[in-house]
# Entry
Amino acid sequence: MLRLHFAGPEGHPLSSALALVGTTTSIGATLDAIRTNTVDALLFDYEWAHPMKSIRASLSAKAFPPFIAVHEQASRAAMVHALACGFDGLVGTSDGSGAIINKIERIVDGTWSFESEPWLREIGLSRGLLARELELSEDDDEQLVDLVGTGLPDEDIALLMDWSIQRVRNRIENLLSNNQLSYRTQLAVIRAASLKVPDFS
Amino acid sequence: MSDDSFFLLSESLLVSDFVDDPEFTEVTFNGEIYTLYRIVRITHEATDHPQGWTHMANVVRVRAPALGVALLRIVGRSIEDARVSLSGIVP
# Structure
Protein backbone atom coordinates (compact mmCIF):
# COMPACT_ATOMS: atom_id res chain seq x y z
CA MET A 1 0.00 0.00 0.00
CA LEU A 2 1.35 3.39 -0.98
CA ARG A 3 2.42 5.83 1.70
CA LEU A 4 0.78 9.08 0.62
CA HIS A 5 1.04 12.55 2.13
CA PHE A 6 -1.38 15.33 1.24
CA ALA A 7 -0.68 19.06 1.53
CA GLY A 8 -3.54 21.47 1.14
CA PRO A 9 -6.22 23.48 2.92
CA GLU A 10 -8.28 21.86 5.66
CA GLY A 11 -11.33 20.01 4.45
CA HIS A 12 -9.93 19.22 1.00
CA PRO A 13 -11.98 16.39 -0.58
CA LEU A 14 -8.91 14.27 -1.22
CA SER A 15 -7.85 14.23 2.42
CA SER A 16 -10.95 12.20 3.26
CA ALA A 17 -11.06 10.13 0.06
CA LEU A 18 -7.69 8.40 0.37
CA ALA A 19 -5.79 6.59 3.12
CA LEU A 20 -2.98 9.03 3.94
CA VAL A 21 0.00 8.68 6.25
CA GLY A 22 0.07 12.43 6.82
CA THR A 23 -1.59 15.72 6.00
CA THR A 24 -0.30 19.26 6.32
CA THR A 25 -2.13 22.52 5.89
CA SER A 26 0.80 24.93 5.56
CA ILE A 27 3.82 25.14 3.31
CA GLY A 28 6.24 25.19 6.25
CA ALA A 29 4.75 22.04 7.79
CA THR A 30 4.83 20.37 4.38
CA LEU A 31 8.52 21.12 3.99
CA ASP A 32 9.19 19.63 7.43
CA ALA A 33 7.14 16.56 6.58
CA ILE A 34 9.05 15.97 3.34
CA ARG A 35 12.34 16.13 5.19
CA THR A 36 11.40 13.89 8.07
CA ASN A 37 8.98 11.30 6.69
CA THR A 38 9.36 8.65 4.06
CA VAL A 39 6.41 8.75 1.65
CA ASP A 40 5.87 7.20 -1.76
CA ALA A 41 4.20 10.30 -3.17
CA LEU A 42 3.41 13.87 -2.10
CA LEU A 43 -0.01 15.05 -3.20
CA PHE A 44 -0.91 18.72 -2.97
CA ASP A 45 -3.69 21.09 -3.87
CA TYR A 46 -3.19 22.57 -7.33
CA GLU A 47 -3.67 26.05 -5.88
CA TRP A 48 -0.37 25.53 -4.04
CA ALA A 49 1.50 24.92 -7.29
CA HIS A 50 3.82 27.92 -7.09
CA PRO A 51 5.19 27.44 -3.57
CA MET A 52 5.38 23.66 -4.15
CA LYS A 53 7.33 24.35 -7.33
CA SER A 54 9.86 26.34 -5.33
CA ILE A 55 10.07 23.66 -2.64
CA ARG A 56 10.69 20.97 -5.22
CA ALA A 57 13.37 23.06 -6.92
CA SER A 58 15.14 23.59 -3.59
CA LEU A 59 15.35 19.90 -2.65
CA SER A 60 18.28 17.74 -3.67
CA ALA A 61 17.66 15.27 -6.46
CA LYS A 62 17.72 12.20 -4.21
CA ALA A 63 15.64 13.52 -1.38
CA PHE A 64 12.02 13.74 -2.46
CA PRO A 65 9.12 11.59 -3.61
CA PRO A 66 7.03 12.28 -6.74
CA PHE A 67 5.14 15.58 -6.51
CA ILE A 68 1.57 15.09 -7.72
CA ALA A 69 -0.83 18.01 -8.03
CA VAL A 70 -4.53 17.51 -7.27
CA HIS A 71 -7.04 19.48 -9.30
CA GLU A 72 -10.78 19.23 -9.56
CA GLN A 73 -10.39 18.27 -13.24
CA ALA A 74 -7.25 16.74 -14.76
CA SER A 75 -7.67 19.05 -17.74
CA ARG A 76 -5.03 19.47 -20.43
CA ALA A 77 -4.38 23.05 -19.32
CA ALA A 78 -3.76 21.90 -15.75
CA MET A 79 -1.47 19.12 -16.97
CA VAL A 80 0.56 21.54 -19.10
CA HIS A 81 0.97 23.86 -16.13
CA ALA A 82 1.94 20.97 -13.83
CA LEU A 83 4.55 19.82 -16.34
CA ALA A 84 5.92 23.35 -16.65
CA CYS A 85 6.20 23.53 -12.84
CA GLY A 86 8.32 20.36 -12.88
CA PHE A 87 5.79 18.13 -11.11
CA ASP A 88 5.56 14.42 -11.70
CA GLY A 89 1.83 14.11 -12.24
CA LEU A 90 -1.67 15.52 -11.88
CA VAL A 91 -4.85 13.80 -10.72
CA GLY A 92 -8.44 15.02 -10.80
CA THR A 93 -10.71 14.63 -7.79
CA SER A 94 -13.63 14.19 -10.18
CA ASP A 95 -12.10 10.92 -11.40
CA GLY A 96 -12.95 8.99 -8.24
CA SER A 97 -10.68 7.47 -5.61
CA GLY A 98 -10.09 4.21 -7.51
CA ALA A 99 -8.89 5.95 -10.64
CA ILE A 100 -6.84 8.39 -8.57
CA ILE A 101 -5.04 5.58 -6.74
CA ASN A 102 -4.43 3.76 -10.00
CA LYS A 103 -2.86 6.83 -11.56
CA ILE A 104 -0.75 7.57 -8.48
CA GLU A 105 0.56 4.00 -8.53
CA ARG A 106 1.51 4.36 -12.19
CA ILE A 107 3.28 7.64 -11.50
CA VAL A 108 5.19 6.16 -8.58
CA ASP A 109 6.26 3.01 -10.48
CA GLY A 110 7.14 5.04 -13.56
CA THR A 111 4.65 3.53 -15.98
CA TRP A 112 2.99 6.91 -16.45
CA SER A 113 4.59 10.30 -16.94
CA PHE A 114 3.60 13.53 -18.63
CA GLU A 115 5.99 12.64 -21.42
CA SER A 116 4.01 9.46 -22.12
CA GLU A 117 1.02 11.54 -23.26
CA PRO A 118 1.26 11.94 -27.08
CA TRP A 119 -0.47 15.32 -27.15
CA LEU A 120 2.02 16.70 -24.60
CA ARG A 121 4.97 15.41 -26.60
CA GLU A 122 3.63 17.27 -29.66
CA ILE A 123 3.68 20.59 -27.77
CA GLY A 124 7.36 20.10 -27.05
CA LEU A 125 7.17 21.80 -23.67
CA SER A 126 10.17 21.08 -21.50
CA ARG A 127 9.57 19.85 -17.94
CA GLY A 128 10.19 22.37 -15.21
CA LEU A 129 10.25 25.47 -17.43
CA LEU A 130 8.64 27.58 -14.70
CA ALA A 131 10.98 26.21 -12.03
CA ARG A 132 14.13 27.31 -13.79
CA GLU A 133 16.70 29.65 -12.36
CA LEU A 134 17.51 32.16 -15.04
CA GLU A 135 21.14 32.45 -16.02
CA LEU A 136 22.01 36.14 -15.80
CA SER A 137 25.36 36.99 -17.32
CA GLU A 138 25.41 40.79 -17.08
CA ASP A 139 25.22 42.96 -13.94
CA ASP A 140 22.01 44.67 -15.01
CA ASP A 141 20.31 41.54 -16.37
CA GLU A 142 18.37 41.19 -13.14
CA GLN A 143 16.84 44.65 -13.50
CA LEU A 144 16.03 43.92 -17.12
CA VAL A 145 14.26 40.63 -16.43
CA ASP A 146 12.39 42.21 -13.53
CA LEU A 147 10.97 44.77 -15.94
CA VAL A 148 10.19 42.08 -18.52
CA GLY A 149 8.51 40.11 -15.74
CA THR A 150 6.20 43.01 -14.95
CA GLY A 151 4.87 42.88 -18.51
CA LEU A 152 6.39 46.09 -19.82
CA PRO A 153 7.06 46.40 -23.57
CA ASP A 154 10.61 46.96 -24.84
CA GLU A 155 9.98 50.66 -25.48
CA ASP A 156 9.03 51.33 -21.85
CA ILE A 157 11.96 49.26 -20.61
CA ALA A 158 14.31 51.34 -22.78
CA LEU A 159 12.95 54.54 -21.19
CA LEU A 160 13.26 53.17 -17.65
CA MET A 161 16.76 51.77 -18.13
CA ASP A 162 17.87 54.82 -20.18
CA TRP A 163 18.97 52.43 -22.94
CA SER A 164 18.41 52.44 -26.67
CA ILE A 165 15.70 50.10 -27.91
CA GLN A 166 18.44 48.25 -29.80
CA ARG A 167 20.32 47.53 -26.58
CA VAL A 168 17.16 46.32 -24.82
CA ARG A 169 16.28 43.94 -27.63
CA ASN A 170 19.83 42.62 -28.01
CA ARG A 171 20.01 41.92 -24.28
CA ILE A 172 16.63 40.20 -24.23
CA GLU A 173 17.76 38.07 -27.17
CA ASN A 174 20.91 37.21 -25.25
CA LEU A 175 18.86 36.18 -22.20
CA LEU A 176 16.57 34.02 -24.30
CA SER A 177 19.53 32.35 -26.00
CA ASN A 178 21.49 31.75 -22.78
CA ASN A 179 18.45 30.20 -21.12
CA GLN A 180 17.36 28.09 -24.10
CA LEU A 181 14.03 29.90 -24.30
CA SER A 182 12.09 30.46 -27.50
CA TYR A 183 9.63 33.22 -26.55
CA ARG A 184 9.78 36.53 -24.67
CA THR A 185 6.71 35.52 -22.66
CA GLN A 186 8.60 32.51 -21.28
CA LEU A 187 11.23 34.86 -19.87
CA ALA A 188 8.55 37.07 -18.31
CA VAL A 189 6.64 34.16 -16.80
CA ILE A 190 9.71 32.46 -15.37
CA ARG A 191 10.84 35.69 -13.73
CA ALA A 192 7.37 36.49 -12.43
CA ALA A 193 7.02 32.94 -11.07
CA SER A 194 10.43 32.84 -9.39
CA LEU A 195 9.09 32.71 -5.83
CA LYS A 196 11.72 31.75 -3.29
CA VAL A 197 10.57 29.84 -0.22
CA PRO A 198 12.90 30.80 2.65
CA ASP A 199 14.17 28.04 4.88
CA PHE A 200 13.59 29.42 8.35
CA SER A 201 15.27 26.42 9.95
CA MET B 1 12.82 44.62 -52.06
CA SER B 2 12.74 46.83 -55.13
CA ASP B 3 11.98 50.36 -54.00
CA ASP B 4 12.67 53.77 -55.60
CA SER B 5 13.28 55.34 -52.19
CA PHE B 6 16.64 53.58 -51.80
CA PHE B 7 19.93 54.92 -53.17
CA LEU B 8 23.12 52.91 -53.49
CA LEU B 9 25.90 53.85 -51.09
CA SER B 10 29.64 53.69 -51.63
CA GLU B 11 31.29 50.40 -50.72
CA SER B 12 33.99 52.32 -48.88
CA LEU B 13 31.58 53.29 -46.12
CA LEU B 14 31.91 51.31 -42.89
CA VAL B 15 29.10 50.03 -40.71
CA SER B 16 30.60 52.08 -37.87
CA ASP B 17 29.96 55.22 -39.93
CA PHE B 18 26.23 54.67 -39.33
CA VAL B 19 25.74 52.80 -36.03
CA ASP B 20 27.56 52.23 -32.76
CA ASP B 21 26.61 48.52 -32.54
CA PRO B 22 26.49 46.43 -35.72
CA GLU B 23 24.33 43.78 -34.04
CA PHE B 24 20.58 44.20 -33.84
CA THR B 25 17.59 42.06 -33.00
CA GLU B 26 14.58 41.54 -35.20
CA VAL B 27 11.40 40.93 -33.22
CA THR B 28 8.72 38.83 -34.89
CA PHE B 29 5.70 36.66 -34.10
CA ASN B 30 3.77 39.35 -32.24
CA GLY B 31 6.75 40.39 -30.15
CA GLU B 32 7.70 36.88 -29.04
CA ILE B 33 10.63 35.72 -31.16
CA TYR B 34 13.93 37.60 -30.95
CA THR B 35 16.55 36.93 -33.66
CA LEU B 36 20.03 38.44 -33.57
CA TYR B 37 21.73 39.69 -36.75
CA ARG B 38 24.99 41.43 -37.56
CA ILE B 39 25.32 44.01 -40.30
CA VAL B 40 27.92 43.11 -42.91
CA ARG B 41 27.52 46.24 -45.00
CA ILE B 42 25.01 49.03 -45.29
CA THR B 43 24.27 49.13 -49.00
CA HIS B 44 21.52 51.73 -49.45
CA GLU B 45 20.15 54.83 -47.84
CA ALA B 46 16.49 55.79 -48.09
CA THR B 47 14.93 59.21 -48.33
CA ASP B 48 11.38 59.82 -47.16
CA HIS B 49 10.47 56.15 -47.25
CA PRO B 50 6.70 55.83 -46.67
CA GLN B 51 7.23 53.16 -43.97
CA GLY B 52 10.04 55.07 -42.28
CA TRP B 53 12.95 52.82 -43.27
CA THR B 54 16.23 54.71 -43.51
CA HIS B 55 18.71 52.12 -44.76
CA MET B 56 19.11 48.70 -46.35
CA ALA B 57 21.91 46.31 -45.41
CA ASN B 58 23.44 42.90 -45.99
CA VAL B 59 23.21 40.95 -42.74
CA VAL B 60 24.13 37.59 -41.26
CA ARG B 61 22.15 35.75 -38.63
CA VAL B 62 24.33 35.27 -35.56
CA ARG B 63 22.97 32.15 -33.79
CA ALA B 64 22.23 29.96 -36.81
CA PRO B 65 24.06 30.59 -40.10
CA ALA B 66 22.08 32.47 -42.69
CA LEU B 67 22.42 35.47 -44.99
CA GLY B 68 19.86 38.15 -45.50
CA VAL B 69 18.87 41.64 -46.44
CA ALA B 70 17.55 44.00 -43.81
CA LEU B 71 15.45 47.13 -43.89
CA LEU B 72 16.59 49.33 -41.03
CA ARG B 73 15.37 52.40 -39.23
CA ILE B 74 18.49 54.08 -37.88
CA VAL B 75 18.02 57.03 -35.55
CA GLY B 76 20.94 58.66 -33.77
CA ARG B 77 23.38 55.82 -34.56
CA SER B 78 20.99 53.27 -33.07
CA ILE B 79 18.75 50.78 -34.85
CA GLU B 80 15.18 51.37 -33.78
CA ASP B 81 13.51 48.81 -35.99
CA ALA B 82 14.43 46.17 -38.55
CA ARG B 83 12.85 43.73 -40.94
CA VAL B 84 14.93 40.95 -42.40
CA SER B 85 14.48 38.76 -45.44
CA LEU B 86 16.70 35.70 -45.48
CA SER B 87 18.17 34.22 -48.62
CA GLY B 88 16.65 30.94 -49.73
CA ILE B 89 19.90 29.13 -49.11
CA VAL B 90 20.20 27.87 -45.54
CA PRO B 91 22.97 25.38 -44.64
Notes: Residues 6-86 of chain B form one domain.
